[in-house]
Design brief:
Blueprint: H1 5-11, E1 18-21, E2 25-29, E3 39-43, H2 55-76, E4 80-84, E5 100-105, H3 124-137
Antiparallel strand pairs: 1-2, 2-3, 3-5, 4-5
Length: about 140
C-alpha cells in the first residue's frame, strides 16, 4: 500500500533500526518506544489486522517473536516483556498494518495501563450468551 509507513519501511523508502528480517517478516525498533528495547514485528505483505492475516503469517510472526524475546532477554535482561497486538481503530491501532509489539519491562518503570485493569464481576448470563454466539461462529 503506497501510503502505509510500514510498507515504506519494508521497501527501504524510510529508514529503520532493523533487528531481524527474513522473506516474510521485518522486525525493527519502535522509534517512539514505551521502554528500552521496544520492538515491532510486521509481515512484509500489507495486511491491516489479524482478520486479514493468513495462519502462516501469524505463525511466522509468532515464531519471530519467540526468537526475539530470547534475544531481548539475553541483551538487556528485562524482568518481563509485554506482548501487544491491536486490531482496529477502536482499540487504538494507529498504523493500519498488522504489527506485533515486544515491550521489555523492569521493576520501577511504572505500570502499563494495558496490563492492569479493575476486576469487576461480569453478568454471568450475558457472558454465557456471548460465549455461545462466539463458539457457534467458529469455523
Amino acid at each position: 500500500m503506497s501510503d502505509c509507513i510500514f510498507c515504506k519501511i519494508i521497501k527501504g523508502e524510510i529508514p529503520c533500526f532493523k533487528v531481524y528480517e527474513d522473506d516474510s517478516v521485518l522486525a525493527f525498533a519502535d522509534i517512539n518506544p514505551i521502554s528500552k528495547g521496544h520492538i515491532l514485528i510486521i509481515p512484509k505483505r500489507h495486511i491491516e489486522n489479524m482478520w486479514e492475516a493468513t495462519e502462516e503469517e501469524l505463525v511466522t510472526v509468532m515464531r519471530t517473536a519467540k526468537k526475539l524475546i530470547h534475544a531481548i532477554k539475553d541483551a538487556i535482561n528485562p524482568e518481563g516483556v509485554a506482548v501487544l497486538q491491536l486490531n482496529g481503530k477502536a482499540v487504538n491501532q494507529v498504523v493500519m498494518h498488522y504489527h506485533f509489539h515486544l515491550i521489555p519491562r523492569s521493576e520501577g518503570e511504572g505500570k502499563l495501563s494495558m496490563t492492569e485493569w479493575e476486576l469487576i464481576p461480569g453478568n454471568m448470563e450475558e457472558i454465557k450468551q456471548t460465549v455461545g454466539k462466539i463458539t457457534a461462529a467458529i469455523k
